[in-house]
Amino acid sequence: MTINTNEQDFFSVIKDRHSVRKYQPGIQMPEEDLQAILESAVMAPSSWNLQHWKFLVIQNQETKERLLPIAYNQEQVVDSSVVVAVLGDLEANTNAEIIYSAAVEHGFMNQEVKEGLVGQINGAYEANPQIARDEAIRNASLASMQLMLAAKAKGYDTCAMGGYDPVKFVEEFKVPERYVPVMLISIGKAAAAAHGSGRFPVEQMIVKETF
């Protein structure tokens, strides 16, 4: 099979993306780079297209210093150019009316289909309270991976961090109850290569048809 240049670039980005924990301090990310990365992240797929994410962008050094103890003093917090806190939207179902009204306006669906979908979504959220949290985390995670790949394509390194105190984070950064912290992502220029890590052979991770 012939692989074109775009495919080669895409697979290189995936292959070259690693979790980098040591960054060159003091590197300022141009706003246009950050904007391009975030615009790529919000193109991620989401259940019902509800776009269950919010990004809290932390660039100011003083703000990163406030985050440092909450993230258990991981140095990448203060040395990276930007830390993006990815939040999941627990009330994403309330986006449905806006999103699907716009779809009707642009001719993507009719009013009857729109009303059916909005009813389906709200019904699902009301029937199972757990769905709000599950969908918030699932879909914000999809956006997170897309963000990290976009950053790598722009020449930046990243590290997804689950090591932080979510309760203190919510308190310190006044996160509304609507949002659940999903992860922190550091973005910057590597000062040292990511340490090596092994991967299981793909054959070991695949089950076809059924167990």
UniProtKB/TrEMBL annotation:
Q: Which keywords fit this entry according to its UniProt record? A: Oxidoreductase
Residues of the Nitroreductase domain: 14-189
Per the record, the domain of life is: Bacteria
The cross-references to Pfam families, in alphabetical order and at most eight, read: Nitroreductase
Q: Which InterPro entries would you find in this protein's record?
A: Nitroreductase (IPR029479), Nitroreductase-like (IPR000415)
User: What would you give as a GO molecular function for this chain, any one?
Assistant: oxidoreductase activity
Q: Which PANTHER family match?
A: NAD(P)H NITROREDUCTASE YDGI-RELATED, NAD(P)H NITROREDUCTASE YODC-RELATED
Member of which family? Belongs to the nitroreductase family.
- Please identify the protein, giving its name as recorded: Nitroreductase
Q: Which organism is it from?
A: Marininema halotolerans
Q: What is the lineage of its organism?
A: Bacteria, Bacillati, Bacillota, Bacilli, Bacillales
